[in-house]
Amino acid sequence: MLSILEGILKKLGLYDSLEITVGSGIDRFEDLVAWQKARLLTKEIYQVTRQGAFAKDYGLSGQIQRAAVSIMSNIAEGFERNRQGEFHQFLSIAKASCAELRSQLYVAFDANYLNQAEFTQLLTQAEEVARIIGGLRASVERRKISNSALKSQHSAL
Q: Per the domain annotation, does 150 fall within a domain?
């Protein structure tokens, strides 16, 4: 499964840039591309949800804002836990929040809160964030497997 994902990431040109994980010289979550892109997406979501009829739909605007904040927050929290397994879990939650946000974008578009250009731009951004998180999560998984194999070899000695 991982080799298939690695192949896809290599074709997309994302593989090498996603090798950045806990323990690889990155000391701050703010340096992770996934977090940076999620932050930009969150900013855009806040901008569109404060305009026109969207701003008056407190339920949907609040829910989509929370989903966007959840993406970047889970990346940050998982990174700060300093454990591969926990980081992987929090990245899974962040990726799921991307799916939630994308679904809510369809609701906003269908309710005419977003025009076609806004919808397409935000959906594209959310899909990009999800791909980056997925690649980062795969990188963390590879590192977990590699570390586990090293521990097994070391204990056999």
A: no
